[in-house]
Specification:
The complex is a heterodimer of chains A (326) and B (343). Chain A is α/β, with parallel strands linked by helices and 326 residues long. Helix content of chain A is 37%, strand content 21%. Chain A folds into 2 domains: 182 residues, Rossmann fold, CATH 3.40.50; 130 residues, Rossmann fold (3-Layer(aba) Sandwich), CATH 3.40.50. Chain A is built from 12 helices and 14 strands. Chain A has a 7-stranded mixed sheet, with helices on both faces. Chain A has a 5-stranded mixed sheet with strand order 9-11-10-13-14, with helices on both faces. Chain A has a two-stranded antiparallel ribbon with strand order 1-8. The longest helix of chain A has 16 residues. The radius of gyration of chain A is 19 Å and the shape is globular. In chain B, 54% of the residues are buried. In chain B, helix 2 crosses helix 3, helix 3 packs parallel to helix 8 and helix 6 packs parallel to helix 7. Classes of the chains: A alpha/beta (326), B alpha/beta (343). Chains A and B meet through helix 3, helix 4 and helix 5 of A and strand 2, helix 6 and helix 7 of B.
Chain lengths: 326, 343
């Protein structure tokens, strides 16, 4: 067991898979010699060499297209798109190409690839380098979508993503790169499509993803210590496949549901989950499901503005308390 | 442009027999197969048996035939929505192609892809892509795999003149050149970007070849209606790629006899243009070529008759084939064979 940063966990997760399988290759902008703009891939170039860790031009379409072509002919590429906002310039591959080629070809074409990307706010980068765009990908049939919140999950879910036969979009949260967590020694392999109850509780279920997980946990601590409200916090981890059984099971115990989403309001992942719960667990609910999200706005750069845009522990706690006490 | 086009019609003062009779007969047969199958696809569309859309390669057969003849087994083809010709040229049975166009269960993808997405990985046809430019980077990726694994196969990517004005074209060319990838980019310049003359919307005369220098590649323009010229250019590009000398960009001058898609009567063409190009019909050119090399009329007629019979038989099989079963609606979304996104 060692303490590792989320940032170092990325490199360890990739290294674990590249060591295991020579068909795993890695490409992206500044990922090799420079070690990544977030320093999340330091050491990979030195360890695996320029044939397996390849620096690319600023050509996001070429990056994802090349990853797809390599995947459909036998490699297991990991492609980095530096900021998830840049998905917008290569979205054809995500929305039209590697997500649909298996279906369109009646199973002939297979695309086992991973697209990893820096997602989310907190760096004061403004509206084009701060977004949470996991819902852009969640809506597309044929993709799998994961977003780890801890160093251990980064390694385990990276392994699961690389070994998965389908294309996986792997959202790393930029504001989590510096956070630390305990990581066991040796190989770590997790399972896609599994949510994790990270704090058991009986009064309400709070679903969160990525950066919102530590905030939901902090809110739960506050609710317990200040108001005696005992919340269960579920780290959703995987949007596709979605672990609805864990979510429905939690709601059946607590009878209240809150989602904490960094994405702007409309069509956030919480909306889909609320609709599932409304459909399948309506009579388990003792009150309306509540979505706590970033308002439906582009993100501002100024720290005092960005800070009030995203759900905070205080805002989460306040919303849960008011809802439970109303 | 005229020099390239006119070369095809000019009488050959000295015959170059570098290609050989076996390959020449194959080049002819493949062109006739494409012509007959495409014409049949059009006829079946008029009978409402081909549904959806279709983009025919009538008039552009020499490009597909010339490249396919230069390929080796294991070489990979990446096509556009105008991909019937390239799919047939790799040896995919006519029945499988027409079946897909007719959305029958015997189609290449059992009706799940349709005319614009013909794919037969067993034949090296790695897909037909309907988003302009998308497949150029994808072909780069396949070539990267070959380079990484030390394999000798080469990826080829066919596209139209309109593709040269989209970003993915330029990203892919630069990427392939920088990584020295074994990939061949083939622009079929049929003079029209959908309904608009390519010259009206492009800064250079030759939309692909005139951009080659930006990527450190030689400028190559060939007569795309002369299968021999195409074959020679293709063979040289394959040789270069297999030798590890990187990508090629080849612009083939050609002309489509039909509209952009089935919805297009092509009324935007100047009067007489189609007729002029029909004089340069690649099959007409090649029939004359075979005769110049002493191939008997009876041999040529025999090929014509055999192909016609093949297309007739394929058509009848497709007409008799069932529609796909409804349960394939949700198969092969994910690798487990199904579509489950939740537990």
């Amino acid at each position: 067991m060692a303490e590792l940063t989320y940032r170092d966990a990325v490199a360890r997760g990739i290294a674990q898979e590249m060591t295991r399988d020579p068909d795993v290759v890695f490409l992206g902008e500044d990922v090799g010699k420079a070690g990544g703009v977030f320093k999340a891939t330091v050491g990979l170039f030195e360890q695996f060499g320029p044939l397996r860790v390849r620096d690319t031009p600023i050509s996001e379409q070429a990056i994802l297209g090349a990853a797809m072509g390599a995947a459909m002919t036998g490699l297991k590429p990991i492609a980095e798109i530096m900021f998830s906002d840049f998905f917008a310039v290569c979205f054809d591959y995500i929305a039209n190409e590697f997500s649909k080629s298996r279906y369109m070809s009646n199973g002939q074409v297979k695309c086992p690839l991973v697209v990893r990307t820096g997602n989310g706010a907190g760096s004061r980068f403004g509206a084009q380098h701060s977004q949470s765009v996991e819902n852009w990908c969640m809506m597309i049939p044929g993709l799998k979508v994961v977003a780890p919140s801890t160093p251990r999950d980064v390694i385990g879910l990276m392994a699961a993503a690389v070994r998965d036969p389908d294309p996986v979009i792997f959202f790393e949260h930029k504001s989590l790169y510096a956070t630390k967590g305990e990581v066991p020694d040796g190989e770590i392999v997790d399972t896609l499509g599994t949510a994790k109850i990270v704090r058991p509780g009986k009064d309400a279920t709070i679903l969160a993803l990525a950066l919102m997980v530590p905030r939901a946990l902090a809110a739960a601590d506050k609710l317990k210590s200040e108001h005696g409200i005992d919340c269960e916090v579920v780290d959703v981890r995987s949007l596709v496949p979605l672990d609805t059984q864990t979510i429905l099971g939690s709601v059946a115990r607590t009878h209240r549901l809150f989602t904490v989403e960094e994405n702007p309001r409309l069509c956030g992942w919480g909306a889909e989950i609320v609709s599932i719960v409304a459909d399948e667990a309506f009579y388990e609910l003792d009150g309306p499901p509540v979505r706590i999200t970033t308002p439906h706005i582009p993100l501002p750069a100024a720290d005092i503005l960005e800070d009030i845009a995203l759900p905070t522990a205080d805002r989460i706690a306040d919303r849960v308390r008011k809802s439970l006490q109303s | 442009m005229a020099t390239v086009e006119d070369r095809a019609l000019a009488s050959k003062t000295s015959l170059n027999d570098d290609i050989g009779e076996e390959t020449r007969l194959r080049l002819y047969r493949v062109q006739v197969e494409i012509r007959e199958a495409e014409q049949r696809a059009f006829d079946l569309f008029l009978q409402n048996l081909v549904k959806g859309t279709s983009h025919l390669s009538l008039g552009q057969e020499a490009v597909a035939a010339g490249f396919a003849a230069a390929m080796k087994p294991g070489d990979l083809s990446f096509c556009t929505y105008r991909g019937h010709a390239h799919t047939l040229a790799r040896g995919v049975p006519i029945e499988k192609v027409l079946g897909e166009l007719m959305q029958r269960d015997n189609g290449l993808m059992r009706g799940k892809g349709g005319s614009m997405h013909l794919t037969s990985t067993d034949h090296g046809v790695m897909g037909s892509y309907a988003i302009i430019g998308a497949h150029l980077p994808i072909a780069c990726g396949a070539a990267w795999r070959a380079q990484y694994k030390g394999a000798k196969d080469v990826a080829v990517c066919f596209f139209g003149d309109g593709t040269t004005n989209i970003g993915a074209f330029h990203e892919a060319l630069n990427f392939a050149a920088v990584w020295k990838l074994p990939v061949i980019f083939v622009c079929e310049n049929n003079l029209y970007m959908e309904y608009t003359p390519i010259g009206d919307v492009t800064a250079v005369q030759h939309p692909a070849a005139d951009r080659a220098s930006a990527y450190g590649l030689p400028r190559i323009v060939v007569d795309g209606n002369d299968a021999d010229e195409v074959f020679r250019a293709a063979a040289a590009a394959y040789e270069k790629a297999r030798a590890g000398d990187g990508p090629s960009l080849i612009e083939c001058m050609t002309y489509r006899h039909s509209g952009h898609s089935r919805a297009d009567p092509a009324k935007y063409r100047p009067e007489g243009e189609l007729e002029k190009w029909k004089e340069r019909d690649p099959i007409k050119i090649y029939r004359e070529r075979l005769k110049q090399f002493g191939i008997a009329d009876s041999v040529i007629a025999g090929i014509d008759a055999e192909v016609k019979q093949q297309v007739d038989e394929a058509t009848e099989k497709c007409k008799a084939a069932p529609m796909p079963p409804l349960d394939i609606l949700t198969t092969d979304v994910y690798a487990d064979g199904g579509w489950a996104w939740r537990n």
